């Protein structure tokens, strides 16, 4: 007996590849930002091995000819050479883009001005925000890429309201502090294939597996354009004559000594002050660039309870300024774990952060990154413009 009823059609979800696209890896183009280090090299090799259409891109960010002999910095001449060798071995196209002027205007100039103003800038964050995840990402789109992948240790997860940013599986390698300005639109285009790995040893093992020459290459330690960590020498070259001498004073304004320029000091510094004979240890607690004064005091004067932040980038759910107060965890230095705090929006892109446990060494110019209190999600962050000492 025939039937007029057709058999029901079962809808099937399209199969997604490992990067989240409903097509074959060979039809998925990925631009990999390659610094020449082991992390980004492994990302490129891994994706190429999985069959993706990989294009490697390395940025020349400063005069690498002057840095050929320098070790421990990214984007120098040797690093460009290393990235090219990886591409040749694995067999994918590789390009070097001259971003030197862009990097100087977007990162180095602000770095110098911030130090002269007595702040403590974090240029690696500005580089991610203004160069890698803005200009390089735009170049990746121009190359008809489906996404851009990097070697950062951070995780991108699909949430109920879209992609979310999460800390790396390995807390010792987590780089979420440096990526808080990543916008939702950028996050939709970015991929971080190493964020789930348990340790850096896993990355090096993959590099050895693929026969990469950078498998044992040391990690970068310094800011790429600051040789040997000597910030003052770089600033003096960028702003000749700007480092003017002044006085070292205590909290009451009493003169204790002199200094060669505020750019030689940072908040929390104890050694190298040149004011021996003090009964108790003293620390740099404030830099008064306008009056060319370095203010020192006891360690208790470093304890900060409240910080004011601006340029807030919000990655959490809902409107940022729609809630009077949120319980969060915050990280003020990349080397310190998140700590409990209260977050109060004071405008669309500004906030007051109350640290439940005061923290030492907080300075204007640093980043304040927000995290959920339970779990690994990054909620955003902002730049510290002012701090209030413990009441």
Automatic annotation (TrEMBL):
Cysteines joined through disulfide linkages: 127-224
Listed GO MF terms: tRNA-uridine 2-sulfurtransferase activity
Compartment(s) where it occurs, according to its Swiss-Prot or TrEMBL record: Cytoplasm
Predominant location: cytoplasm
Domain of life: Bacteria
Domain tRNA-specific 2-thiouridylase MnmA-like central residues, every copy: 243-297
Keywords on record: ATP-binding, Cytoplasm, Disulfide bond, Nucleotide-binding, RNA-binding, Transferase, tRNA processing, tRNA-binding
CDD domains referenced in this protein's UniProt entry, alphabetically: MnmA_TRMU-like
Record keyword Plastid present: no
Keyword Transmembrane helix: no
Active site as annotated: 127, 224
Site (Interaction with tRNA): 152, 366
Coiled coil spans: none
Pfam annotation, one family: tRNA_Me_trans
Enzyme Commission no: 2.8.1.13
Domain tRNA-specific 2-thiouridylase MnmA-like C-terminal: 305-384
Function: Catalyzes the 2-thiolation of uridine at the wobble position (U34) of tRNA, leading to the formation of s(2)U34.
PANTHER family: MITOCHONDRIAL TRNA-SPECIFIC 2-THIOURIDYLASE 1, TRNA 5-METHYLAMINOMETHYL-2-THIOURIDYLATE -METHYLTRANSFERASE
Record-stated family: Belongs to the MnmA/TRMU family.
HAMAP family: tRNA_thiouridyl_MnmA
Name of this chain's protein: tRNA-specific 2-thiouridylase MnmA
Organism: Paracoccus pacificus
Lineage of origin: Bacteria, Pseudomonadati, Pseudomonadota, Alphaproteobacteria, Rhodobacterales
Gene giving rise to this polypeptide: mnmA
């Amino acid at each position: 007996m025939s039937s007029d009823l057709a058999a029901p059609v079962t809808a099937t979800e399209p199969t997604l590849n490992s990067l989240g696209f409903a097509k074959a890896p060979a039809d998925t183009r990925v631009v990999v930002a390659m610094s020449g280090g082991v992390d980004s090299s492994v990302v490129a090799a891994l994706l190429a091995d999985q069959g993706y259409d990989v294009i490697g891109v390395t940025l020349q960010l400063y005069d690498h000819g002057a840095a050929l002999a320098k070790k421990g910095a990214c984007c120098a001449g040797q690093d460009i050479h290393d990235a090219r060798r990886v591409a040749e071995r694995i067999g994918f196209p590789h390009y070097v883009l001259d971003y030197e002027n862009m990097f100087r205007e977007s990162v180095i100039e602000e770095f110098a001005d911030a130090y002269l103003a007595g702040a403590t800038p974090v240029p690696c964050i500005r580089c991610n925000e203004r160069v890698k995840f803005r200009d390089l990402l735009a170049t990746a789109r121009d190359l008809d890429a489906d996404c851009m992948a990097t070697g950062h240790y951070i995780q991108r997860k699909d949430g109920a309201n879209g992609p979310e940013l999460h800390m790396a599986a390995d807390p010792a390698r987590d780089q979420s502090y440096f990526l808080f300005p990543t916008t939702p639109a950028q996050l939709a285009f970015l991929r971080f294939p190493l964020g789930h790995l348990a340790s850096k040893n896993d990355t090096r093992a993959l590099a050895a597996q693929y026969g990469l020459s950078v498998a044992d290459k040391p990690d970068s330690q310094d800011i790429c354009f600051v040789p040997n960590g000597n910030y003052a020498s770089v600033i003096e070259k960028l702003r000749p004559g700007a480092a003017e001498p002044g006085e070292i004073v205590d909290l009451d304004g009493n003169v204790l000594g002199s200094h060669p320029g505020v750019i030689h000091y940072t908040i929390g510094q104890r050694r190298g002050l040149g004011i021996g004979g003090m009964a108790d240890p003293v620390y740099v607690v404030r830099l008064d660039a306008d009056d060319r004064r370095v203010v020192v005091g006891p360690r208790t004067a470093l304890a900060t309870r409240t910080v004011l932040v601006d340029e807030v980038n919000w990655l959490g759910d809902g409107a940022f300024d729609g809630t009077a107060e949120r319980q969060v965890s915050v990280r003020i230095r990349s080397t310190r774990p998140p700590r409990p705090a209260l977050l109060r929006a004071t405008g669309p892109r500004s906030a007051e952060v109350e640290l439940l446990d005061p923290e030492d060494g907080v300075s204007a110019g640093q980043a304040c990154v927000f995290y959920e209190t339970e779990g690994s999600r990054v909620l955003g962050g902002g730049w510290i413009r002012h701090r209030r000492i413990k009441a």
